[in-house]
């Protein structure tokens, strides 16, 4: 997992609540053997005018010109702004993989579905919950400003706009530590390698038939 | 200080570390791997340039996607084929033990682990599949994990876990003749509900449980997840040892003796305290049939389909109505009025040799009823299939009109070509009767192998004991 660095990025705003994981990545793509490559099918039903199947050449499909992420500069957006209960529904980790593969690093919403929230941290995506009023304000600010950008400072736990107005956010200390250091659970457990090895030594002495 | 439960003992044995918030770092002995939930984990390792901590802990097998017929042609669905090929490639690359298609040892992951002696008492066993609970029958702590966790175990041989609560379900006394492990576990789920074991590890105890064979115990533990608990456990006893002895992955000679001495302690202490205790009277258990779209929607064959009008809880009543509507059933119908279209004998719940023997015992000398469109027997592994053929069970099924298939998950989830068409009704020995589980619009009734066989020859549900007594 990459370290989470401060950045300033373009905001793609979806003025909807309850965007579910089925919308984020439809079920037919779960047959895939990859954790990567889902970006091209992110929001597939909204993004393309024809139905999608796994393994298809997506460059041959008809893009929906109305869809935000098909338009400049949002095709390079790094921050997704949405309304409440983002990513509800199925537990598919593929939803996180698809968002990240597209290029998103942060999702800002008033609230998130539990499982998605947890899955995000396992993969280095930062979900930021801001108060309803703040989210409202952001939606108002970006009206008519295609190049609207926000800056994210994880260490300082603030999101700020071009004018320097800061919006602080909460995050669990442990999760913040993992993101800042680019540590997934695996990275952390691997820091205990020596402990695991010495555990194994005494363990297999006691249970030699398992060695 | 109170004694320890079996769960406490296995947990303590495997705890590498504890963190401040009470989560433990748990050492994993056995990692079972199949084609659907492993590719991203292997890929993750590669991207992070990590390797596998303990390759020999892994036993891999393709099962979910494999066809059960026409194997000469290989897998024709290209997406499924790629998943299986990927598993093969990954296993070859890291030199992992895999039973590929065509290997007589190939089969459903939860059947082959125990069959090979790869699941041993006191072990921690994980797999990217919720029915890993099956292996708890061997006094092993076994539970399903997600893809990120699969990768975590591959890389570190450990998992970060919160300890669950201790629950014990005692099935006291002996069951009546003709009552199987499937009836016992369906009855338990009917009693405690699909969320009855949430947050718990359930230990099964009592004469009705200890009286079961290992096959039967696996059936019970398999469906623990359907009761909301991630893991089920049964203490180690002579039945356990007799099953394991001599299997390929099991210890032998001096090591066997040492192991057996250690396994002798794999039971809950007499003074252990459980957070929850449920006692069920074995004598109350009759053959079970599910009527709805959740395993807790179950009743005895001689009861009638329940009436939502009798349910005081309005939310529950609404759920019952929706389920009856989906299932195309009316309240108060008796089960012998319910005709089935297809019969499926298989899955990690009921595809072991004992299950096939039970079904064949009912089928012998009889024919499929005229209304049965398709009746499948899908052995749990190539070795189960071989054994059944040695005993002539395949002939009994084929003579009656059943199809005798190759091992795999098959119609349990319909990821391959074996599935229900919309509106079709199935008597199935699998574990989930969710909407669309066996095919979009399909209607699943969960039963034991003997009850499925009885429905196949009668064309509708029937108390198999009447058939066995020669009354039908
Ligand atoms: S047989 Fe069914 S429940 Fe068992 S592992 Fe296969 S798909 Fe899952």
Sum this structure up briefly.
By secondary structure, chain A is α/β, with parallel strands linked by helices. Chain A has eight helices and seven strands, in the order E-H-H-E-H-E-H-E-H-E-E-E-H-H-H. Chain B has helices at 6-14, 39-47, 78-93, 109-115, 147-156, 181-192, 207-210, 214-222, 238-244, 253-263, 314-327, 353-363, 382-390, 393-400, 449-458, 464-468, and strands at residues 15-18, 24-27, 30-33, 58-60, 97-98, 124-127, 141-144, 158-161, 165-172, 200-205, 231-233, 276-281, 288-290, 298-300, 342-345, 374-377, 403-404, 425-428, 443-446.
Question: Would you mind describing this structure in some detail?
Answer:
The complex is a heterodimer of chains A (211) and B (472). With 211 residues, chain A is α/β, with parallel strands linked by helices. Chain A has a single domain (7-183), classed as Aconitase, domain 4. Chain A has eight helices and seven strands, in the order βααβαβαβαβββααα. The mean pLDDT of chain A is 90. Chain B has 472 residues and is an alpha/beta fold. The longest helix of chain B is centred in the N-terminal third of the chain and has 16 residues, at 78-93. The N and C termini of chain B lie far apart (58 Å). The interface between A and B is medium-sized, with 32 and 38 residues. Iron/sulfur cluster binds at residues 63-64, 108, 110, 129, 131, 347-348, 409, 412-413, 430-431 of chain B.
Task: Name the features.
heterodimer, A: 211 residues, alpha/beta, Aconitase, domain 4, seven-stranded mixed sheet, globular, B: 472 residues, five-stranded parallel sheet, 19 strands, binds iron/sulfur cluster
